[in-house]
Each structure stands twice: as structure tokens, then as C-alpha cells.
Amino acid sequence: MNTSDVLSDAPADADPALFATMSTMRAMRRLRPEPVPDEVLDRLIQAAVWGPSGGNMQRYEYVVVTDPVVMAELAPLWKRCVDAYLATTGKYAPAGMDEAAYGRMVAAIEYQRDHFAETPALVIPCYRFPEPRIEEEGMRRYAEALGADATARMGRIQERFSALAEGSCVYPGVQNLLLAARGLGLAANITIWHLFLEEEWKAVLGIPEEMNTFAAIPVGWPSGRFGPVSRRPVAEVVHRDRW
Fold first, then answer.
1. Phi/psi of residue 63, each to 5°?
2. Considering the entire predicted model, what is its pTM?
């Protein structure tokens, strides 16, 4: 099926509705305290589950926090993580972003930090690959296919490769969740700052030690308005055929 088949019922100058959704997916950090119904949160997780899964293993798990008591336990951890970020990487505006705009972004981050206990819902995506099944003949063919240099190089970067492999099974689902949230009029933003204190977060939430966490996603009804995102033009980021 080609693009013209998919869009045959749409006006010639119309983009799919999904494009409008993606182009207005700002990170909304100011949330109203009203609860998000469980059935709506289940729709977000369903959207995440529809995401690609490496090897179709579907080893993802999602911790969904809505209990204000648990959120209050997490709030001090969130504050420590955000303060650590703002004292280091977050101390400076990204290249190409003016100081006034960055100041507004930091103000929103600080608002979310200071009101975290009022967050209506928080989603923690988790994943853990099973132990690999490795046998001698398979490793011999693996080395033959890659060659000696690449096999040695893979040995040096195995930890990074494993982390990326797990992440590639999680983040497509997370993006689906964020798209679904925007489509339902919810505010959500992805962060990984909890990793500064991941053991403490896992202890509060009862997440097994062997399970890896990949994000902390606050979700709620926005107190502000959605608007167009500011991104680099396509012409600046595309390399045709070669770098």
C-alpha cells in the first residue's frame, strides 16, 4: 500500500491528523491536580503496548502511580534528581535556544518539581531482557559473520549494546504513550532524571532489583495550552545518502 492509497479519502492539501498531534506535543509540565480516570490511563498503556518489541519478546512492564501517598514518597526523590540536573547539565541553555525561552522552560521544570506530590499519575516503563542463550556453534558463526575486529569491538561495547537493545524495545512504546496522551488532551513529558536515584525509586515502588527502568512520565490534565513545537528545520538535519 502506498501513501496515496492511505490518504485517498483526505483532501489533497491535508496532512493526517497524527501530524498535527506530533507538531503540538510540547512537554507540558504544569498539571492540574484533578485525577485521570483509570480507564484513560489504561488506554495510554494500551497504546504503549502496541509499540514495536524487539524479537517480539514483549518483556515490558509499566508501573502506574496514582496514589497520593506514594506520590508524596516520590516527591523528595524527584526534587533531589531535578536539583542535581539543574546544577549540572540543566544549568545552561542548549545551543540555539535563547536565554529567555530557556528561563521559561526551567521555570516549568521548577514548578513541576515543587508540585510533584500533586501529580495525578506517573508512569514508569520497565524492561529486562532474559539471559541470552549462547552455545559454541552459534558464537563461532557470529564471529565468522562479523570478522575478528568487529567481534572484539562488540566485546568492548556489549554493555552499551545491551542497554540500547532494551531501550529500543521500550521507547517506541513510550512515544506511543505520549502521542496517545496528546490525542486525549492530556499533558505528559518524558524524563530520565529518576536514574540519578534509581535504587531509591525502585525501593519505594517495589520494582524488582533485576528490572531496569527507562523513564518517569508525569501525566495529567494541562493547566496551559498546547502549541507548536520549536525544532530544527529538516534541511539542517538530513544527510542524503552520506554524511
1. -90, 120
2. 0.87
